[in-house]
Design brief:
It contains 12 helices and 20 strands. The chain has helices at about 25-40, 70-75, 80-85, 110, 130-140, 200-205, 260-270, 275-285, 330-350, 360-390, 395-405, 410-420; strands at about 20-25, 45-50, 65, 90, 90-95, 105, 125-130, 150-155, 155-160, 170-175, 180-195, 210-225, 230-240, 240-245, 255-260, 290-295, 300-305, 310, 315, 325.
């Protein structure tokens, strides 16, 4: 006999400062704050001085690949504003391996023009410059002043949670202002950490992570090319890692994410723009014509990290605080938004039923529903990175054969395409 799942404990109204406190106001934390604010919750969005996101700046042209499913969720939350006008659509993705003639094309309209059971978006996703997303999210937060309080603190001093259902979580912060330095304590039903890969709150809560260094660095920069990209993203696997061209709004500009070993990446980053463009052309080829590097590359050392637990009493992790994956699949931010979409839905449903939004039952449900997506994508990204780094002749032959075979097998190609859209596991 299967017993019915336990219901959340009903907690009487209490004079807590906030329903939810979110530490970390980047692309994940800000989106979660808006989702919860629109659901009627009182939210404190904390930024720690020195760790807060950079202010919107059009000169910073780093980008995020927003999968189709994430884009729809952001639209639903009224977070997709300038991004709708300024983003570069990904109509298709072409995957290739070194000099192999075999390649794999992901094109939703060509593969499944009419799918009555699961209508597909017309594009796989959108490439958006980060400053545009930050501006959109800040505008949405400003429209919810009664629900969202945004605050910058000098430091988070301590966190206290209790396994007793009725006990609130407490967070002590150091603030500075006209009145000098003082310690302020906030209470909440639920504390959520979206404060990045080195999450101070995760460490305060004693949650360990499985982590390793890839010994690779991603170079990120913008290029101008002679031929239009036609909204096609390219990912070419090289000996040091993947080289991706991601289409921007401007038809003759792409965001480049070039992964190499740390030593090679450092050498490439030291080149002038002309020399870097020449090295890029040698590896990518002439399909987009001549290339011009528009800005010095930014370097991002690549690591893997996965928290051993996603929750603790009245505490949850989301985004990079919980998981950090190789960018080979371009799913980092999308994975974080899938965390927030589930968390927001569970919390809002519990509140509507008069239940405890920070209960152990709710948090365990969140953790259980997120693990399949996190584990499967971790396995895929790590496996792909190892597979395409191998220089063994027999492995190279199998890779080439595999790309060609998948490209001609719709039944196998469709789930891979859905995963790229963010419509796979966890949706």
């Amino acid at each position: 006999m299967v017993s019915k799942p336990a219901r959340h404990a009903i907690v009487p109204a209490s004079p807590l400062d906030y329903d939810v406190i979110i530490s970390g106001a980047g692309l994940i934390g800000a989106a979660l704050a808006v989702a919860l604010g629109r659901g009627g919750l009182r939210v404190l969005l904390l930024e720690v001085a020195g760790h807060r996101p950079r202010p919107p700046n059009s000169a910073d042209r780093r980008t995020t690949a927003v999968a189709a499913a994430s884009r729809q969720w952001l639209c639903d939350m009224a977070l997709w504003r300038q991004a709708a006008r300024e983003g570069g659509e990904i109509a298709a993705i072409r995957v290739s391996d070194r000099q192999s003639r075999m390649f794999l094309d992901f094109d939703p309209l060509a593969l499944i023009p009419k799918d009555q059971e699961q209508p597909l978006p017309r594009t796989l996703g959108t490439i958006v410059e980060n400053h545009i997303l930050h501006e959109d999210f800040s505008a949405a937060i400003a429209e919810l002043p009664q629900q969202i309080t945004r605050m910058t603190v000098a430091e988070i001093l301590s966190v206290k949670t209790d396994s007793v259902e009725a006990a609130p979580a407490k967070i002590n912060c150091l603030t500075t202002g006209a009145e000098g330095t003082k310690t302020v304590e906030f209470t909440t039903h639920l504390l959520i950490a979206t404060d990045g890969k080195n999450s101070p709150l995760r460490q305060m809560m004693g949650i360990e992570s499985l982590a390793w260094d890839y010994d690779q660095t991603a170079l990120v920069f913008i290029v101008q090319h002679q031929e239009p990209h036609q909204s096609i993203a390219h990912e070419r696997f090289l000996g040091g890692g993947p080289l991706a061209f991601l289409p921007l709004k401007e038809p003759n500009q792409s965001s480049v994410v070039w992964t190499e070993s740390k030593a090679v990446a450092a050498e490439l980053a030291s080149l002038n723009s002309g020399e870097l463009a020449e090295e890029l052309w040698v590896r990518f080829g002439s399909s987009l014509g001549g290339l011009q590097v528009l800005e010095p590359p930014k370097q991002w050392p690549l690591q893997f990290a996965m928290a051993r637990r996603l929750v603790a009493p009245r505490f949850a992790l989301a985004g990079d605080s919980a998981h950090l994956l190789h960018p080979i699949a371009g799913q980092g931010a999308n994975l974080g938004w899938r965390d927030t979409a589930l968390l927001a839905r569970l919390i809002i449903e519990a509140k509507a039923q008069g239940l405890d939004i920070g209960s152990t039952t709710l948090l365990q449900k969140y953790e259980a529903q997120r693990w399949p997506d996190l584990i499967s994508l971790s396995v895929v990204t790590n496996g792909l990175n190892r597979l395409f780094l191998s220089n063994r002749a027999e492995v190279a032959w199998l890779r080439s054969l595999g790309l060609g075979a998948v490209d001609h097998l719709p039944w196998l190609k469709k789930p891979l395409m859905l995963q790229a859209m963010g419509l796979g596991a966890g949706q």
